[in-house]
Amino acid sequence: MRLVLLGPPGAGKGTQADRLVERHGIVKLSTGDMLRAAIAGGTELGRKAQPIMDRGDLVPDALVIGIIGDRLAEPDARRGFVLDGFPRTVAQAEGLAELLESRGLALDAVIEIEVDESALLDRIQTRARESAVARSDDDPEVAKRRFAVYREQTAPVSGHYRAKGMLKTVDGMQSIEEVSAAIERALLVPTGAPNRPRNG
Ligand code: AMP
User: Fold this and answer.
1) CATH T-level fold of 2-26+79-188
2) What is the number of the ligand 1 atom nearest to the C-alpha of 149?
3) Which residues line ligand 1 (CB under 6 A)?
């Protein structure tokens, strides 16, 4: 199974990706985690990415498409994957399509976790308080910048996949369990079919 999870910062993509990994025996590919690992490892990529991430901006498309391309080439990704935090721009979505096509692969579904934005800053602030490892980008000012970047650059990615009939949406303002169940139900609906009532 090859999936993309979309949704604004704090929507629960990471949590739901972990659950998909457990249930479906696929790997989670999180560009945010990969970039944080590069920073921790003091690599060239990490040195480039850190100031950009600290501001809440997006790392250049070519860099993240490159790391995803390398990661997709590793053997464990053959069993399937869930992308968490990638693609974040339409150019990245197009880059991903090329990477997959070159390997004769395609996505099974793109799932958007829809959330009420005003509730999200609270969630992010709770994560900042409760997290064992502080994320500098959970700082309130940086979080606001991340939302602005999401609206400007990442929200169009949903429309891109909707136009291709690949987008499934789930209500993210429910418990973790309920969101998980909604994702599993959405995965049972063939791609291209509406996954909720049109007039509902
Ligand atoms: P995340 O953990 O997914 O919220 O990502 C943390 C930060 O890493 C983001 O705010 C961006 O600065 C950077 N980042 C992660 N994924 C991407 C991506 N696909 N494209 C550009 N920047 C990214």
Assistant:
1) Rossmann fold (3.40.50)
2) 10
3) 9, 31-32, 35, 52-53, 56-59, 64, 85-86, 88, 92, 137, 146
**What is residue 142's predicted lDDT score, i.e. its pLDDT?**
86
Summarised one tens digit per residue, pLDDT across range 102-155 is: 999 999 999 999 998 777 777 777 777 776 666 666 677 888 899 999 999 999
Where are the domains positioned within the chain? 2-26+79-188
Residue segments in the chain with a per-residue pLDDT below the cut of 50? 197-200
Give, for ligand 1, the residue of 18, 34, 53 to mutate: max count of ligand atoms closer than 8 Å to Cβ: 53
DSSP string, the chain: -EEEEE--TTSSHHHHHHHHHHHHT-EEEEHHHHHHHHHHTT-HHHHHHHHHHHHT-PPPHHHHHHHHHHHHTSGGGGG-EEEES---SHHHHHHHHHHHHHTT---SEEEEEE--HHHHHHHHHHHHHH-SS--GGGSHHHHHHHHHHIIIIIHHHHHHHHHTT-EEEEE-SS-HHHHHHHHHHHHHSPTTS-SS-TT-
